[in-house]
Write a structure and sequence with these properties.
The complex is a heterodimer of chains A (260) and B (422). Chain A has 260 residues and is of the alpha/beta class. Chain A contains nine helices and ten strands. The chains are: A alpha/beta (260), B alpha+beta (422). At the A-B interface, helix 3 and helix 4 of A face helix 1, helix 11, helix 12 and helix 14 of B. The structure holds adenosine-5'-diphosphate and magnesium ion (MG).
Chain lengths: 260, 422
């Protein structure tokens, strides 16, 4: 497969490449069987992009997100983050990358139940090298940023689902990461709360935050500027949101035609 | 220099935070943590209390050494453990006057020597005042010198008191007050039983003797040795001696043994029917015994710390598995393996050290308890600082040792798998 710079829109074509995946595979060995969760993915993602990754369950979205978030390593291929090859990095260096450059938001929030909001948000700063002096201040700022300035002392069980996810987003943002990764961030939320979270994402994007999110809901994906569709561990389409909508329409028709 | 200081502050901060976190975790599972610590608490408490008791005994003996010096020697009859005399009664074992004849000539390492005899318990009275059950001792004047007795009033027995078996006595100030004698009671007359005695001296209070019987004696009255012999038929006799120097103490003991074996007619190969004791050999014996007790106690504490440690390991494994998602999350936000490892290691060390501290607290209570046991010579029991330090260090080491495996397990967890854990 030829390596193309993958610039879907003319507007992002000018900005810096943050993530460069080249022919990445991720193979799981289950007994004697090999599962190719990612099967040759090549992607370039730029600064201040707003990307939605879509696909059916099991198509490899989470695997891709974990890889981008440096939680996992590719079986083959290369991954450059901010121009640095992460494939060759040691575990400790990857931990530092996760800490400094990546903000991860999970479907199930992953807050520590015994800690209040501030302490949850502080967590990445604890592992940052020079974090401790202004830790509290930064945590509160981050909570205010996501609209939870009045809930800073609450523990997770005293917060609603939407508020929990906001705390998680505050935690992801507290180290000012290059990219915000969100794996089905609204998966555990009702429609109204989801809309609130998406509004927050839109604001963050408008402020210049690079966002990559996984979703299987078209109306959530509609917030993004670029949509990447996956199937069986491969990227099957990668288009700006406007073109994606039309192609989606067409491909669903052609699918019907070929599969029958 | 400045960066070094900075690093130190950062380290302290880190320790403070880790310990705080660990304590919070322990507090969140109070009951479980306490039960886990129990093994360590009991182990540390029991061995520390034993050490406290031994230290108290040793301190007690040392204060006696201070009072009496190491030169003092006690000689008294003792039933042997074997040989023909092993069933002998005390009457058969008693010292007779001829056993002591020529002692100073045959024992060159002995500087002073004096005999004492029991005058039994008597009623002592003055006019219409009386004291019952007062222990009366017949003592040669040397005994008072060896014991270092000092006088509040009057004088010690003179050579003539002894030679002529005069009916004179030395009392203590408590007896003087009980009998409502004058403050200066010298030359006043009292009755011991039915015999009139003249008071020639008043003792300062008696220092405690480790081997003498009446430690908590209320009243004390001393009469010349020969006077007691005259008044009582064949009283119970013992004696005290003093070696010329503490270096000569060993020789003195050997000479005395040799001498008494001959005068008491003990055949070669048969055991002694008396004991010759100095504070020095009591101290040596005590050190031997206390080393033995400490070894046994250390063995016990070793076992209980092992059991406690396995308990800690178990609970830490439970903790790691309960907090798998937390570990995954911490790794996802940038915790390195070393950070996770330290977190769990510190938690187990804090748990164990807390157990150790509680154990020391319990030992303190136990020590206060045993110090109150009457007549057990344990009133000076205390926990020495080194015992506390060792208890804490040992607990911490147990924490590191048994916490290592669970901590490594936690550090090795794969973040994604950990986050997927139910
Ligand atoms: N740890 C794993 N072991 C084995 N197979 C896995 C593992 N994680 C994911 N997979 C497989 O990889 C494929 C992609 O999974 P995933 O990335 O979670 O899909 P998605 O997030 O798009 O639903 C699936 O077939 C899944 O079963
Ligand atoms: Mg998924």
């Amino acid at each position: 497969m030829p390596i193309s710079p993958n610039s879907p829109t003319s507007s992002t074509g000018r900005t810096r490449v943050v993530i460069q995946l080249r022919d990445v595979t991720r193979v799981y060995q289950v007994g004697t069987e090999q599962i190719r969760a990612l099967d040759g993915v090549t992607l370039a993602l730029h600064e201040n992009e707003y990307i939605a990754i879509m696909g059916q369950s099991g198509s490899g979205k989470s695997t891709l997100m974990n890889l981008i978030g440096c939680l996992d390593r590719a079986t083959s291929g290369s991954y450059h983050l901010d121009g640095k090859n992460t494939t060759e990095m040691a575990d400790a260096a990857l931990a530092q990358v996760r800490n400094e450059r990546i903000g991860f938001v999970f479907q199930s929030f992953e807050l520590l139940s015994q800690l209040n909001a501030i302490r949850n948000v502080e967590l990445p700063l604890i592992y940052a090298k020079d974090g401790w002096r202004s830790r509290r201040k930064r945590a509160i700022e981050s909570l205010e940023h996501v609209g939870l300035g009045k809930r800073v002392k609450h523990k997770p069980n005293q917060l609603s689902g939407g508020e929990k996810q906001r705390v998680a987003i505050a935690r992801a943002l507290v180290c000012k990461p290059s990219i915000l990764l969100a794996d089905e961030p609204t998966g555990n939320l009702d429609t109204r709360t989801s809309a609130g979270i998406m509004k927050l994402f839109d604001t963050l994007y408008a402020e210049g935050q690079t966002i990559i999110m996984v979703t299987h809901e078209e109306n959530i994906a509609a917030h993004a500027r670029r949509v990447i569709r996956m199937r069986d561990g491969r990227v099957i389409s990668d288009l700006p949101i406007e073109q994606d909508a039309t192609s989606q329409h067409l491909s669903s028709e052609s699918d019907r035609g070929t599969e029958s | 220099m400045k960066s070094l200081l900075w690093m130190l502050i950062a380290l302290l901060r880190f320790l403070y935070q880790s310990i705080h976190l660990a304590l919070a975790q322990i507090w969140a599972n109070k009951t479980r943590s306490f039960l886990t610590m129990l093994g360590i608490i009991i182990g540390v408490a029991s061995v520390t209390a034993v050490i406290a008791a031994l230290s108290g005994l040793k301190a007690k003996i040392l204060t006696q050494v201070e009072t009496f010096g190491t030169n003092m020697i006690w000689i008294s009859p003792r039933q042997p453990e074997r040989g023909p005399m092993r069933h002998a009664n005390f009457w058969e074992l008693r010292f007779k006057l001829q056993h002591f004849e020529g002692l100073m000539d045959h024992c060159p390492s002995i500087a002073r020597f004096g005999k004492q005899s029991s005058g039994g318990r008597q009623t002592v009275s003055h006019r219409d005042q009386s004291a019952e059950g007062v222990r009366v001792n017949g003592s040669e004047q040397a005994c008072h010198e060896i014991e270092g007795r000092t006088f509040m009033l009057g004088r010690p027995f003179s050579v003539m008191d002894e030679m002529q078996a005069r009916q004179v006595c030395i009392i203590d100030s408590k007896l003087r007050d009980t009998l409502r004698l004058d403050r200066d009671c010298i030359n006043q007359k009292i009755l011991i039983g039915h015999n009139p005695f003249i008071i020639v001296g008043v003792f300062d209070p008696k220092p405690h003797s480790p081997f003498g019987e009446g430690d908590s004696e209320d009243h004390e009255i001393s009469i010349p040795f020969r006077t007691n012999l005259k008044l009582r038929h064949e009283p119970w006799i013992w004696s005290i001696a003093e070696s010329a120097s503490s270096e000569a103490s060993e020789d003195a003991l050997a000479e005395l043994r040799f001498f008494f074996r001959r005068t008491r007619g003990i055949k070669p190969g048969e055991p002694d029917t008396f004991k010759v004791e100095s504070l020095k050999n009591a101290l040596d014996t005590f050190d031997k015994i206390s080393a033995m007790v400490t070894t046994v106690a250390s063995g016990i504490v070793g076992i209980s710390l092992l059991v406690g440690g396995v308990g800690i390991m178990n609970i830490m494994l439970v903790s790691v598995s309960e907090r798998t998602r937390e570990i995954g999350l911490r790794k996802a936000v940038g915790a390195r393996r070393s950070a996770i490892l330290t977190q769990f290691l510190i938690e187990s060390v804090v748990l164990c050290t807390l157990g150790g501290l509680l154990g020391i607290g319990l030992a303190q209570l136990l020590t206060m308890g045993i110090a109150k046991i009457p007549n057990a010579q344990l009133d000076m029991s205390y926990i020495p600082w080194w015992a506390m330090t060792i208890a804490c260090v040992f607990s911490a080491v147990v924490g590191v040792f048994f916490g290592m495996f669970p901590a490594i397990k936690a550090a090795r967890l794969d973040p994604i798998e950990a986050l997927r854990h139910e």
